[in-house]
Amino acid sequence: MPPRLHAWLPILTWSRRYTAQQAAADGVAAAVVTLMLIPQSLAYALLAGLPPQAGLYASMAPLLLYAVFGSSNTLAVGPAAVTSLMTAAAAGAAAAHTGAGHAVAALWLALLSGGLMLLMGVARLGFVAHFLSHPVVSGFVSASGLLIAASQLKHLLGIPLKGDTLPALLAQLPGHLGAVHWPTVAMGAVVLAALWAARRHLKPLLQRWGVSPFVADIASKAAPVLALVLSIALAAGLDLADAGMKVVGAVPSGLPPLTWPSWSAEAPALVQALLMPALLISLVGFVESVSVGQSLAAKRRERIDPDAELRGLGASNIGAALTGGFPVTGGFSRSVVNYDAGARTPAAGIFTALGLALAALFLTPWLFHLPQATLAATIVVAVLSLVDLGAFTRTWRYSRTDFVALALTFGLTLAVGVEAGLMAGVGSSLLLWLYRSSRPHIATVGQVPGTEHYRNVLRHSVLTHPKILGLRVDESLYFANARYLEDHVAAQVANHPQVRHVVLQCSAVNDIDASALESLEAIAERLHDAGVTLHLSEVKGPVMDRLKRSDFLDHLCGQVFLTHHQAITSLSAE
Amino acid sequence: MPPRLHAWLPILTWSRRYTAQQAAADGVAAAVVTLMLIPQSLAYALLAGLPPQAGLYASMAPLLLYAVFGSSNTLAVGPAAVTSLMTAAAAGAAAAHTGAGHAVAALWLALLSGGLMLLMGVARLGFVAHFLSHPVVSGFVSASGLLIAASQLKHLLGIPLKGDTLPALLAQLPGHLGAVHWPTVAMGAVVLAALWAARRHLKPLLQRWGVSPFVADIASKAAPVLALVLSIALAAGLDLADAGMKVVGAVPSGLPPLTWPSWSAEAPALVQALLMPALLISLVGFVESVSVGQSLAAKRRERIDPDAELRGLGASNIGAALTGGFPVTGGFSRSVVNYDAGARTPAAGIFTALGLALAALFLTPWLFHLPQATLAATIVVAVLSLVDLGAFTRTWRYSRTDFVALALTFGLTLAVGVEAGLMAGVGSSLLLWLYRSSRPHIATVGQVPGTEHYRNVLRHSVLTHPKILGLRVDESLYFANARYLEDHVAAQVANHPQVRHVVLQCSAVNDIDASALESLEAIAERLHDAGVTLHLSEVKGPVMDRLKRSDFLDHLCGQVFLTHHQAITSLSAE
User: Fold this and answer.
1) Closest chain A residue to the Cα of B546, Cα to Cα
2) Do B133 and A394 count as a contact with CB atoms less than 8 A apart?
3) Chain A residues with CB inside 8 Å of B518's CB?
4) Euclidean distance between the first and final Cα of chain B, in Å?
5) Which pTM value belongs to this model?
6) Edge-to-edge strands of the sheet including B454-456?
7) Which parts of chain B register pLDDT below 70?
8) Other CB atoms closer than 10 Å to residue B521's CB: what's the count?
């Protein structure tokens, strides 16, 4: 088989060496993850504004397809908190705008983002995810966590709240406080407290009782399942649904239906409305997935291939679109559980899909009495760990410009919405990067007496020559800073009328792009018109090779010196 | 007076030292520029789809306002070829879309782009113009030149052609060839040939006849005026207008009217449609203006202040909007003529405005018989010098990625339109920059035997230690390349299972932003999980200061070494 096919289908590699031992490990991990995924997938479906079974459906075909195309051995694919929130916002807006159903819009969203990921993976465009700088992702994820928690208030309080932004949700709160359903509040509060306590204290407690660390860990992660079972029992026993508590209700049994986002009359408008959200969901999902995948792979000195990840996630999302699901990605918590529970290969994902298929076939009747408040509490506990307010002080101390991007993304995501926040974050990152790189550090340098070293005149007591200006550029030269160099040289020469030679020390210049080349030509020409000669020193090999391919050196009146010291000695001797 | 006011109103500085000698020089330059501007401003008004007098109007108030706020002594502001083309496209589309008049749309466009420039100047946001990299500007200007020339075919052939793209214009040509008006063609061809010859041969010819170089230069630049006068005489004498030749017709006499883009019913839609074009016109106009201004200022070791330029151009455009004009900028050819003719201060602009006012008052009756073919020929000769096809081969040889941006901008501008071309250019520049910086050069380094120097193992025969991996990153670390570093280190460590220490040599790292800091933390943690320790060496002072403000160094298990050699010696001694 051609090696290229193996790169595209990682399953061909691992499945041929698959051992019984690996299968046993994968099976255990799959059982643990299945238990964890049942409440999680139901909860994220509700978060996305869809019926609970959509969460189960979105956790089967995508897992199978990821196992075929993905490159991580331990990533667990399925609905995730942030992408579900984005799905709710995008599908809701598009459905309202075009008259299509919310579920149809979610299918289209999965199809589009899957197609975009596949396209990016095939064209090796994974690098576009770099547009999402860390402060942007951090601000976005924190804000999304808060937004998700706020969106669950309606389930925890038993009141109707609508809206995609924090102000919208909070503004409705006072008007509904009189209608709060206290049994629901009690159920939510108890589950919330129990899950919170389990998360913080169950593992050390069990270990103190002599339980092995591994089992203690799994048990504390499976706490939501226990909460689920107990609250179903309580709600069914006391018939709380009749008392006005909102429960999940009838969930159809059976395997996922085959669905196809049909090309109806509203489809063109729907696709147009969903294209940008789909791109954003793809990027966010990809970034989350790759970060988790890379962390877990590195622990075992394995590798993941970002382009294979894009293809795997793309196939998964298309799978979700064809089987009644919604956008999926590699989730953080479930992948960590999968890893910790000992998954060795993507076969664990296949086994998990089988486990969920059994759940979909046989467990759904038991979910009728599951209170929505329990699912909401599950979500709130999960997402509040995403909120990292410490990032604000850390980033403020480290870099003011990064702080601006973080704060802008956070604020706009909460106040205007997930898409506006993310786009403002990307835009501000680019603008701030441009601002920062538009002012490269340029030092006027002079000779450290008695040596061949040249240092910044502002930081060291050094010797300078009245007719020679030595400038060291501490950055590669390219379109973002080329014009600043022009300004800087013009200002320096205007301020030093005696100067006859300008020497650019290029020791820190790793690249000169076409814009910067043009600027250097303009600088040389303008200096020449003013009776000054431009020279270069310490140009790196690859940069010099490139300059030789242009006619810059033919037109340069000055010289290119191997060292800055040679330049100064030779020019001051004139 | 506070010094800040002087920075904002350069006129306060130069006017107080204004001498009779300077006034004489400025007067001569103004006379020459006025002569040149009469045909040019009429022609660019027609190009922008406006009545000819709009060109005269746009050359008065803007010049006065620039003289007050601008920082260049020689820049001549007024309608320019590329911005006029952009005005035609944007005002045409917005007028068709909203039902407003073309002239009203042009006023709004001037007001919006003036407002944006003023805003950018006050907020010191001039750096956003760096988004327009040199290949993008070059491709855009060349394509605009061709597009303008093609748009003048209708005047040169006397046939109706409509459209904003080259395919649209050329596709209509065959259908109209039968209707070509041959006297118009003859007039256009003669003027075209004469102007072309004057541009290439008049100056050397006059010099050979003993005319001084200065006068010869001015005479060759004033050739269009002669062409204008002769073709008016010919058209009037032979009554060519009656024979079917299109002439300028009645141009109202008088000073510019006071206009105000009124807030009518269609205004909100108009503003929305024009905002993006206005931003693009501002950026293009600013880039053109600053390049010319800087070149001319440098020749006399003067300086221009880009933020003052933005304020000056902003005020000029608002002035144009209030006096029946359209978007203006600092034009290349007129500024060079102004400089060559000896302008010393912005007062030359004031005198030019006065000259044009006289023309508007007394010359307009004479323009009735001016053939449109003559103006078209003036434009074609002027813009064809903008087309620089050599840039394609030069850029291809120098940098493939820059070539892609150039070709994309050029092709889309011609085939789809000026705005699409420019935006695709900016977008592709950013993507390509991201692509390029997403793969920084990272060299595995080893010791040059017998020295303390470390070099790339691929280029030199050097010594390496099986348990120590030395990596040199040749780029600042920031969001665009941070994840690549993660991938690269992960791959290297996965490929070298014996490695126990990774040392990052940071001698070329000028900055580490918050994203890269996060990546370094992730790398350190993942390596730690895999039993490998991360160390740094040769971290620059400012970068180290910054790292100390984060908690990265507290969590780093490895050390920070002053030199790479110290790192290797100390680690290999373990």
Assistant:
1) A398
2) no
3) 134
4) 69
5) 0.78
6) B454-456, B442-447, B468-473, B501-505, B533-537, B560-561
7) 1-3
8) 16
Size of interface A-B (CB pairs under 8 A): 182
Contact between chains at B431 and A128 (C-beta distance less than 8 A): yes
Cβ within 8 Å, pair A294-B441: no
Q: How many CB atoms lie within 10 A of CB A463?
A: 12
Instruction: Kindly provide the residue ranges of all beta strands, DSSP E only, lying in A442-528, ordered along the sequence.
Output: 442-447, 454-456, 468-473, 501-505
Q: Is the ipTM of this complex over 0.95?
A: no
> Which helix (H) or strand (E) is B471 found in, with range?
strand B468-473
A299, A497, A550 ranked by CB distance to B530: nearest: A299
**Cross-chain Cβ contact A433/B135 below 8 Å:** no
* Distance, CA of A383 to CA of A192 (rounded, Å): 12
Three-state secondary structure call for residue B446: strand
CATH fold of the domain at B442-572: Transcription Regulator spoIIAA (3.30.750)
Q: How many CB atoms lie within 10 A of CB B171?
A: 12
Q: Which residues on adjacent β-strands are paired with residue A29?
A: none
Which tokens in the block code for residue A117?
A: 């990921």
Out of B303, B397, B406, the one facing A491 most closely (by C-beta) is: B303
User: Cβ of B398 and A135 within 8 Å?
Assistant: no
**Which amino acid, one-letter code, is at B233?**
A
What are the sequence ranges of the domains in chain A? 20-129+138-248+260-388, 389-437, 442-572
Residue A302 has pLDDT above 80, yes or no: no
A136 to chain B: closest CA residue = B515
C-alpha–C-alpha distance, residues B351 and B444, integer Å: 65
d(CA A443, CA A271) in angstroms, rounded, equals 52
Asked whether the beta carbons of residue B515 and residue A133 sit closer than 8 angstroms, the reply is yes
User: CB of A145 within 8 A of CB of A383?
Assistant: yes
Among A127, A458, A459, A507, most B C-beta atoms within 10 A, so best to mutate, is: A127
What DSSP character marks residue A198? I
C-alpha atoms less than 13 angstroms from C-alpha of A431 in its C-beta half-sphere: 13
CA-only gyration radius of chain B, Å: 30
Residue A363: CB partners within 8 Å, gap ≥ 6?
Answer: A38
Of all residues in chain B, what percent are helix, strand and coil, respectively (each to 5)? Answer: 65, 5, 25
From B133, B434, B510, residue closest to A479, measured CB to CB: B133
Considering only CB atoms, which chain A residues are within 8 Å of B526? Answer: 294-295, 298-299
Find the closest chain B residue to A473 by CA distance: B510
Q: Which of A138, A397, A426, A510 to mutate to test the interface with B (most CBs of B within 10 A)?
A: A510
Q: Is residue A91 within 8 Å of residue A48, measured between CB atoms?
A: yes
Q: What is the percent of chain A with per-residue pLDDT over 90, rounded to a whole number?
A: 42
The answer to whether the Cβ–Cβ distance between B490 and A303 falls below 8 Å is yes
C-alpha–C-alpha distance, residues B504 and B525, integer Å? 15
Name the closest residue on chain A to residue B130, using Cα atoms. Answer: A480
Query: Tell me, what's the pLDDT at B277?
Result: 92
**How high is the pLDDT of residue B185?**
93
CB contact under 8 A, B476 and A479: no
Residue A17, both tokens = 């060496």
Conformational region of residue B96, where left means phi above 0, alpha means psi within -120 to 50, and beta covers everything else: alpha
Contact A363, A55 (CB under 8 A): no
Q: What is the pLDDT of residues A408-465, one digit of tens each?
A: 999 999 999 888 888 888 888 888 877 877 888 898 999 989 888 888 898 889 999 9
Q: Note whether A398 contacts B546, CB cutoff 8 Å.
A: yes
Contact check, Cβ <8 Å, A530/B486? no
Average per-residue pLDDT in chain A? 88
Alpha helices in B152-181 (DSSP H): 153-157, 166-176
Does pLDDT of A181 surpass 60? yes
Q: How far apart are CA A425 and CA A129, in angstroms?
A: 13
Concatenating the DSSP letter of every residue in A69-126 gives H---SS--EE--HHHHHHHHHHHHHHHHHH---HHHHHHHHHHHHHHHHHHHHHTT-G
